[in-house]
Design a protein that fits this description.
Layout: H1 16-19, H2 30-42, E1 50-54, E2 64-67, E3 74-76, E4 79-83, E5 91-98, H3 112-122, H4 125-132, E6 138-144, E7 147-153, E8 158-160, H5 171-182, E9 196-199, H6 204-214, H7 223-231, E10 238-246, E11 252-259, E12 264-265, E13 275-281, E14 294-299, H8 311-316
Parallel strand pairs: 1-4, 5-6
Antiparallel strand pairs: 1-2, 2-5, 3-4, 6-7, 7-8, 9-10, 10-11, 11-13, 12-13, 13-14
Length: about 325
């Protein structure tokens, strides 16, 4: 579960016993637990990442996390370890604190069905992170009373470590954060999708998106552009997605698409993780200011099975075929 370490030496574990020794025997609230644990973690381990706790609000999902860039609205009451809200597009490893909750992953207490339902209810952060980031998997550390678990989540399953008594044995938790810190230059090993590139809002790619959103088509064909413009928001990350595809002559190539906020999102981290985008194809010889071409891009973890046809083949044999004006079906 813990990403393998690069050839950067080994972690100094001589002070592990003192890492979380200053934590109180009992936390007074969820907010207090986040603040105390995050403050302790910031005192050691990471050189490039910071730990931030969400300021407690009862009507939103609360989560701490390991960030490479601090959330914008930080410094609640002058405390650099607190933030007004999590930034789901930037969080690297989520931290969940439940001061009065028993170990949710004890098979002695829960059946498999009940456990799966509890997981969906107790870690909504995983869905929010998948909504805002393109990931193969994500990591989380969940503190529950006096125990903790390391958790790895992808669309097929949830992997959970053995129970960790983190006050007396913080080593597994410190090792996870230390290794993630050393993998800052290898995002794939931290769970990021290598086919997705984050677009900076001030970049030339972002300008292509803005130009496409402002382009005016003739009457009757402006609805894709209008929807694209509506979804283009600075409160959501923008991406360039690279998709390998097969041309009609059988040759292989890659196409690139610029996307903003998803048009549709399949709820729940378990499953196919389907998202739908109003996407603009990124062609290097175009600046986005001339007749941008919009497509509907479906991003899904498809089942590979010899008895199941690929979705592109299914769309190509519909009756009548999807070749009416303004509609095309091409397998990507």
């Amino acid at each position: 579960m813990i990403p393998a370490a690069d050839a950067t030496g080994t972690r100094d574990s001589s002070n592990d016993e003192a890492a979380l020794v200053g934590l109180p025997p009992k936390f007074t609230s969820e907010h207090n637990m986040y603040a105390r644990i995050v403050t302790a973690l910031n005192a050691r381990i990471c050189s490039e990442y910071a730990f931030v706790a969400t300021s407690y609000q009862s009507d939103v999902v609360n989560s701490g996390g390991m960030y490479s860039t601090r959330p914008a609205l930080e410094l609640t009451k002058g405390d650099p370890a607190l933030s007004i809200a999590p930034d789901w597009s930037e969080i690297e490893v989520a931290i969940k604190c439940k001061p009065d909750t028993a170990d949710l992953f004890s098979y002695d207490a829960l059946s498999d069905d009940v456990l799966n339902n509890e997981l969906r209810n107790q870690i909504p952060e995983s869905q929010l992170i998948y909504n805002c980031q393109h990931r193969i998997f994500q990591l989380m550390v969940m503190f529950m009373g006096d125990v903790a678990r390391l958790i790895s989540i992808d669309h097929s399953c949830v992997l959970v470590s053995e129970r960790i008594l983190y006050r007396s044995n913080p080593a597994p938790i410190l090792e996870l954060f230390w290794r993630v810190d050393r993998l800052r230059d290898t995002p794939v090993r931290r769970g990021h999708d290598p086919t997705a590139e984050r677009i900076a809002y001030a970049s030339s790619l972002a300008q292509k998106l803005r130009c496409a959103a402002a382009w005016q088509y003739g009457v009757g064909y402006d609805y894709p552009r209008e929807l694209f413009e509506k979804l283009l928001s600075l409160s959501w990350p923008w991406w360039r997605l690279t998709i390998p595809c097969t041309l009609p002559d059988g040759s292989e190539t890659k196409r690139k698409f610029l996307v903003d906020q998803p048009h549709t999102i399949d709820p729940g981290a378990p499953g196919r993780g389907t998202s739908g985008y109003i996407a603009m194809e990124d062609k290097e010889d175009e600046d986005g200011g001339s007749d941008p071409q919009f497509v509907y891009l479906k991003d899904s973890w498809r089942i590979l099975h010899p008895d199941i046809d690929e979705e592109g083949k299914t769309l190509s044999v519909t009756a009548p075929p999807l070749h009416e004006p303004q509609v095309s079906s091409r397998r990507l």
